[in-house]
Structures are given as C-alpha cells and as structure tokens.
Amino acid sequence: MTVATLLLVDDETAFLDAMTKRLTRRDFKVLTASSGMDALEIMSESSEKIEVIILDVKMPGMDGIEVLSEIKRKYPLVEVVMLTGHATVASAIDGMKQGAYDYLMKPCDMDTLVAKVSAAAGKKRQHEQKIIEARIKEITSRRT
Fold first, then answer.
1. Calpha distance 91→13 (Å, rounded)
2. First and final CA of the chain: distance in angstroms?
3. Is the Cβ–Cβ distance between 82 and 102 less than 8 Å?
4. How far apart are CA 3 and CA 6, in angstroms?
C-alpha cells in the first residue's frame, strides 16, 4: 500500500531521479517537476491526489518560496516540506511563515525525510477528516 502520494520539485535532474527511486522503494507514489511552474501545472492538471510536496528552495525562475505561496493559496491542505542545499535562517523563517510543514537541508537523512513526509501526509488527512466531519454535522443539524 502506498504511504502517500507526493510531488518532488527540484531543478537538478540527477537529484530528482535518485530521490524518486529511493522514495518509491519506500512505498511512496512520486510525481516529479523540474521547476516551480511545472509543479503548479501538475497540481492543476493531475488526477492524482497529491498530499505532500517536497520543494527545493533555490530554482531558476520561480523560487521555492514563491511556489510555496502559490500552492498554499490554491491548495491550502497540501503540506509542503522545503528542501535546500542553500538554507539560511531567513529563508527557513520565510518558508514557515508561508505555511511550510518543515524545512530540511540537503543532503538530508532519508529516514528523517521519510518521517517528515509521512507526518505531513498524516496531518493533511486529519484536516480532511475534520472538514468531512464538520460538513456531516452541518448537514445533519439542518434536518432537525
């Protein structure tokens, strides 16, 4: 069974390939994008239910913080783990303010990344369940 469906966004093809293989072996369904614009396009066109995005901060064109902002605006329940080799305290704070679930440095320990992505997927599912329960409560309260 798949642990979660995620979108891996990074402009380095070798990194995308290696991480896709490693995450797939750990039972994640992995979609990839090589730019922020590609990621937003995949999010809008994909029939897959993407739960978590692993997002590089430093990319040409739209950087990760801009992509994060757009994702949170359009898909507020999708969790985003920021991943970068060029971390600064300021970019980490900015990412967290924009709604990132967490912020990790490249290269990161695979077990740590898997734990963060799994926890982020769990958080998204909990939020979705609360929304469903609230809707059911609203519908049933109208009938009484």
1. 23
2. 40
3. yes
4. 10
User: Under a CB-based contact definition with an 8 Å cutoff, are residues 65 and 98 in contact?
Assistant: yes
C-alpha 71/C-alpha 42 separation (Å) is 11
Q: Quick one: CATH architecture of 5-142?
A: 3-Layer(aba) Sandwich (3.40)
Selection from 82, 75, 12 nearest residue 54 by Cα: 82
pTM value is: 0.89
Tokens of 83: 């991943």
The one-digit pLDDT tens for each residue of the chain (144 residues) are 778 999 999 999 999 999 999 999 999 999 999 999 999 999 998 877 899 999 998 888 888 899 999 999 999 999 999 988 776 667 777 788 889 999 888 888 999 999 999 999 999 999 999 999 999 988 888 865
Q: Is 75 buried (19+), middle (13-18) or exposed (0-12) by CB count in 10 A?
A: middle
CA distance 89 to 137: 43
Asked whether the CA dihedral 90, 93, 95, 98 is positive or negative, the reply is: negative
Distance of CA 26 to the CA centre of its chain: 17
